[in-house]
Write a structure and sequence with these properties.
Blueprint lengths: L10 H10 L4 E5 L11 H14 L3 E6 L7 H14 L3 E3 L11 H19 L5 E5 L9 H8 L8 E4 L1 H6 L5 H8 L3 E6 L2 E6 L2 E6 L9 H10 L6 E3 L27 H21 L1
Parallel strand pairs: 1-2, 2-3, 3-4, 4-5, 5-6, 6-9
Antiparallel strand pairs: 7-8
Length: 281
């Protein structure tokens, strides 16, 4: 569970809730607003490790926003991951907005990741590139183009099918086959496009009703032998008041928000339902 979707909870409350609902891991948001401030990351790592251990959980990922060119912050993440026994973290977005030619931006990004990997490899940690709209890697093939310059042990891809509905959509199976050993992590949420006032816009949707067919995604992940984390990042009807990975407004304008226990139970219950259905077919 990505803690960005639990803005109402403290760190202690997060692990208590996840334990109560049967989750296996926690993906901590590292941000000034919550749940871990970047400047406190290394100093708090031991305390957070004990908190997670005491509740029978693992740290599946640290979700950060630090520019990949900031090697000091990359080292902070690596040091904290080592203490937390967490094998991966997400660095900040490399935004593609057309102001810099793609080829120039691509080469600079490869160089930056090379320097970051050299800095963090001694800690046994890897950065993961999230497939995300508005970035240099909106889909599987462009993410692969970045990471294939390095060994899969050193870098991975955080595959987010819902983000691909906004930008970067490829055939699900083809994208997963392309990523191969670089597929290291999966985010779960859903998106729908709606027509309002003569214009199209995307919104967060329920896991069941958005445009990602999660039954198909689960089947394909199992078909390629993926046995890693599927981390919920379901912002639907969550009282968000913050910006996202590329500065997008995550504020939800729902009249009614989902209760914390309801959404935690619904999300993990839905995934378990899909796994049982897939087992039966």
């Amino acid at each position: 569970m990505q803690t960005a979707v639990l803005p109402e909870l403290s760190r202690v409350q997060v692990v208590q809730k996840l334990r109560a609902h049967g989750y296996d891991g926690v993906e901590w948001r590292v941000h000034e607003s919550y749940h871990i401030a970047p400047r406190e990351l290394v100093a708090r790592a031991g305390e957070i490790a004990r908190l997670v251990d005491d509740h029978g959980l693992e740290v599946s990922c640290l979700t950060g926003y630090a520019p990949i060119t900031d090697l000091e912050q990359q080292r902070w993440f690596a040091e904290a991951c080592a203490v937390l026994r967490c094998p991966r973290y997400r660095p900040g977005a490399v935004i593609y907005d057309g102001t810099r030619h793609y080829r120039e931006l691509f080469q600079a990004t490869v160089d930056a990741f090379g320097a970051a990997i050299e800095t963090i490899t001694p800690f046994g940690v890897k950065p993961v590139i999230e497939t995300h709209f508005g970035t240099i890697a909106p889909g599987a093939s462009l993410a692969l183009r970045l990471v294939e310059h390095f060994e899969p042990a050193c870098i991975g891809v955080n595959y987010d099918p819902a983000n691909l509905i906004i930008e970067g959509r490829e055939a699900w199976q083809m994208g997963l086959e392309l990523l191969g050993p670089y597929l290291d992590y999966v985010h779960a949420k859903n998106i729908a496009w709606v027509r309002e006032n003569g214009q199209w816009r995307w919104i967060f949707a329920t896991m069941r009703e958005g445009q990602v067919d999660w039954a198909e995604i689960v089947r394909l992940l199992r078909g390629i032998g993926y046995d890693g984390y599927v981390s919920f990042e379901n912002f639907h009807q969550v009282p968000m008041r913050s910006t996202g990975f590329v500065g997008e407004d995550l504020t939800q304008h729902a009249e009614v928000f989902r209760d914390i226990d309801q959404r935690l139970a619904d999300d993990i219950g839905y995934l378990r339902e899909l796994l049982r259905t897939d087992d039966a077919t």
